[in-house]
Amino acid sequence: MSHLIEMSRISKAFGGSVALRDVSLALAPGTVHALMGENGAGKSTLMKILAGVYQPDGGDIRRNGRMVSFANPRAALEAGISTVFQELSLLPNMTIAENMFLGREPAGRFGGIDRRRMRQETKVALARLGLDLDPDTLVSELSIAQRQFVEIAHGIDADAGVFILDEPTAALNAADVEVLNRHIRALRDKGKAIVYISHRMDEIFAICDVVTVLKDGQLVGTQPLSEMTQGSLIEMMVGRELEDLFPERDGAAGEVALSICGLRLEPDAKPFSLSVRKGEIIGLAGLEGQGQQKILRALVGQFAPVEGTLTRRGKDKRLPLPKESGVRRWQALGGAFVPEDRKDEGLFLGLGAGQNIAMALHAGRPAIEVAKRYGEVIAATMSKLNVKAAGPAASVASLSGGNQQKVLLGRYLATDADLLLIEEPTRGVDVGAKSEIYKILRDFAKAGGAVLVLSRETLELIGLCDRLYVIHGNTVVSEMRAAEATEHSILDAALSA
Ligand code: ADP
Ligand code: MG
User: Fold this and answer.
1) I need a surface site. Which of 63, 90, 232, 367 has the fewest CB within 10 A?
2) How many domains does the chain divide into?
3) Ligand 1 binding pocket includes 86 (Cβ within 6 Å)
4) Which residue range(s) make up the domain with 409?
5) How far away, in angstroms, is 172 Cα from ligand 1 center?
6) Do 171 and 278 have their domain in common?
7) Residue nearest to atom 24 of ligand 1 (CA)
């Protein structure tokens, strides 16, 4: 039998509502198994059953072919199942070492706990993951990424065979995601089975071998990722044709909202020009890291190109912009900028949703006026964007990726910006919320706004945009109507340049 774990026909209801119905999942050693589906599909519930947090109402679990049941998380850990959950499970007021040995503290010579050994072994376990942390550090002092790595170290130390990572990267920045992915690959190479839950398509395709899709508590199917494309995976998740995910284009383009002339991003790159009209959503497509981001960042003063001119509202500005101008200057031009890294560059995680939205209203307005309009604008924005939060005071850190993105968008839509630059609009966002965000962007364009967007998900650009510029080698190599573009034609344009 080649499966480490087999869950068969698992069912689970909470009160009257069914969270899982007859779901089966088999985990093979040496594989990273993606578990996907919209919010509420049942992914976390299935994994909490495997981890001993919940008991199933029906179905069974086999480990190496033998029926098992886990009365609690500790029993699951003893059976070699380690978890990193969305809600972190380390105890914040204890040290790293105490967390690592919780419930299995080594006994010392005189009957007490052997703290020295705990510290030493913790140090070794952390070092294995390349972590240089003091075992006596309180968990509450660690960053979210560090806490996750400690949980993984814990699992490795407990000699787990199965690692469950439930949306581990939702709260991580790009650099930490890289480190995490390296650890996951190392675990796979050691023959561990890893379950990986994430909404990030690029990560799924980069590190997973197999995918199981759930929808409304039921199994849609399990497939090797090598046989799938992003498109077929999305279709599996939403259970409808891809086109239905995107709002209709209306094709009405007005006057030019932004033009960029003679932009030379790097000394050895060819200068190019591009323009965005009112009512248009324009995508910057192509292979990753070919200069798409430099274009947006040059406009907000965060990247210094060699030369170029930007024209906005009849005024010319020479590029590079003066260093100190930054995003504020862009806002003064009626522009908005939503960066890729919501956590590091955009949102204030410690503040409430309302405060995050109100933030940009301060720019260029008397404080008193802002204060008066505050409550109304925030409430209207949250309801218009369908932000699912307990209220304006709800901390942004507690919201799902989709709702965080809506809050960030809301910040700018609450201002009178009519030109939006947006990076990775639906990164880490579940499929249902993706569709809502596409509609928000389209409505913004319909109301006379203009959007310039970049995304690693080519299908997203094709579905969402009116026109695409293909970027390669820090320059525009092709321009096409999105409705006629395909992943293939974009790649072709990029590579034949
Ligand atoms: P996912 O992780 O795919 O987003 P979940 O497993 O968290 O989905 O949730 C599946 C369904 O079960 C949802 O409808 C959710 O509201 C419900 N659910 C999950 N946990 C509980 C719980 N502890 N009590 C009641 N309902 C729950
Ligand atoms: Mg979940």
Assistant:
1) 367
2) 2
3) no
4) 245-496
5) 23
6) no
7) 14
Nearest to 48 by CA among 8, 91, 90, 84: 84
Find out whether the beta carbon of 40 lies less than 6 Å from any atom of ligand 1. Answer: yes
Please report the atom of ligand 1 found closest to the CA of residue 86.
Answer: 2
Give all strands of the β-sheet with 66-68 in edge-to-edge order: 17-27, 5-14, 58-63, 66-68
| Ligand 1 centroid – CA 52 distance (Å) | 16
Q: Are residues 79 and 205 in the same domain?
A: yes
Residue nearest to atom 25 of ligand 1 (CA): 14
Residues 221 and 269 in one domain: no
- Ligand 1 contacts CB of residue 84 (under 6 A): no
116-160, pLDDT tens digit by residue? Answer: 999 999 999 898 888 889 999 999 898 877 888 888 888 888 889
Task: Out of 241, 271, 296, pick the residue that ends a domain.
Answer: 241
Q: Decide which of 189, 222, 241 is a domain's last residue.
A: 241
> Which ligand minimizes its atom distance to the CA of 218?
1
Edge-first strand order for the sheet with 218-224 is: 81-84, 162-166, 193-197, 31-36, 210-215, 218-224
Same domain, 27 and 130: yes
CA of 430, nearest ligand number: 1
CATH number of the domain bearing residue 432: 3.40.50.300
- Pairing between strand 17-27 and 256-264? unpaired
In the block, residue with structure tokens 């995050």: 356
Residue of 10, 38, 44, 214 with the most ligand 1 atoms within 8 Å of its CB, for mutation: 44
Pairing of strands 272-277, 256-264: antiparallel
Quote the strand ranges of 329-414, DSSP E. 335-338
pLDDT tens string 436-486: 999 999 999 999 999 999 998 888 999 999 999 999 999 999 999 999 998
